[in-house]
Specification:
Helices cover 48% and strands 18% of the residues. The protein has 346 residues and is an alpha/beta fold.
Length: 346
């Protein structure tokens, strides 16, 4: 085959239930100049056999095995970084083995990047689907991200400035919701951006941030990346205060960098990020639905601890009608919008 235009990294470990649909969504792309770099982490559910069969049928699919190490295992992001080592094409993407692309996505992404040289990545709308593939609508993060910009009629390509996206990445967290909703220029790799391996499933949040710091994002409002939600996925298994600790680690080690690049006083960035982190910690301290179902006494004690830890946030949480999205995501969006307006970002 001719040199590929897009290298597509497909990390997989025991996702045979979803893998056929994922591969079908790649094989069905209208942009056919791709190469798939499949990183299989010693799957034991039939995935490896399925992948080898797919590679025999299509020379664009290359299967590699990444053996888990004895001490640390094959973490999700170590697998992704393993795939990044093989990127040679001008553009690359990560297609997780339980998610889907619409047929025109790769073509639209390349078109958007060709038309907008200032952009270092293209992003599609992140749309939730169930384990069985039923479309459930945009992720809440997607709606908040879009609502914080003036996107006009909501169609076609919108170029979102580097500064605006970097600020939102720092304050929102998962602004693009899912890594497979993005196609990147190889320049990102040439600048040394890889996935961190010390912050659990939050590494893609930091990857978005570092990407945004390098250039604009072309956002395609006409394309959808279908993000599968089910209990066993990695992000669903991350719960409790440890999530707050890891997010705090990402934010605190990057906020001075963002402040310098965006020309915002460091103290202002720190004040706003500490408020957002406090809200996140409150959400992780209060009881979740499973705790409430198991024991109302334990749930009451946990809620009491959260309220005693921050009475101000407890009052605000009640004002938000006990809605996580209003309490955290809406507040982050408002803070980002105010700060962007104050410093003349769109």
């Amino acid at each position: 085959m001719n040199a590929p235009l897009v290298d597509v990294i497909i990390p997989n470990r025991n996702k045979v239930q979803y893998l056929p649909a994922t591969l079908a969504s790649l094989l069905g792309q209208t942009e056919t100049r791709w190469r798939a770099i499949v990183i299989d982490g010693e799957s034991s559910d039939g995935s490896a056999e399925l992948l080898r069969a797919a590679a025999e049928k299509d020379a664009r699919i290359h299967v590699r095995s990444a053996t888990p190490t004895a001490s640390m295992g094959l973490t999700m992001y170590r697998s992704w970084n393993h795939g990044l080592l093989g990127v040679r094409a001008p553009f690359y993407a990560v297609l997780t083995s339980d998610d889907l692309w619409e047929p025109t996505w790769l073509g639209r992404a390349v078109q958007g990047l060709d038309e907008h040289p200032s952009a270092v990545a293209a992003a599609a709308r992140a749309i939730c689907i169930s384990a069985t593939g039923v479309v459930e609508g945009p992720t809440y993060a997607c709606r908040q991200f879009e609502g914080s910009f003036s996107l006009g009629e909501g169609k076609g390509f919108a170029v979102l400035s580097s500064n605006s996206c970097a600020l939102r990445s720092l304050l929102f967290g998962p602004v693009f919701s899912t890594i497979h909703s993005m196609v990147f220029r190889r320049r990102i790799l040439e600048e040394g951006v890889i996935f961190a391996e010390d912050v659990g499933y939050l590494a893609d949040i930091e990857y978005y941030l570092h990407t945004c710091l390098l250039g604009d994002i072309v956002y395609d409002q006409d394309s959808r990346a279908l993000f599968r939600l089910y209990p066993e996925q990695a992000s669903s298994e991350a719960k409790g205060r440890r999530v707050s600790v890891l997010w705090g680690k990402v934010v605190r080690r990057n906020r001075d960098l963002v402040a310098r690049q965006l020309g915002i006083p460091a103290q202002e960035i720190r004040r706003v990020t500490e408020e957002i982190l406090a809200r996140h910690q409150f959400m992780m301290t209060k009881p979740d639905k499973n705790t409430i179902r198991r024991s109302k006494i334990s749930a009451a004690l946990k809620m009491l601890m959260a309220c005693l830890g921050s009475p101000r946030l407890a009052v605000d949480y009640v004002k938000c009608r006990a809605s996580k999205d209003r309490f955290l995501a809406d507040s982050s969006a408002k803070m980002a919008k105010r700060m962007a307006a104050a410093h003349a970002f769109s």
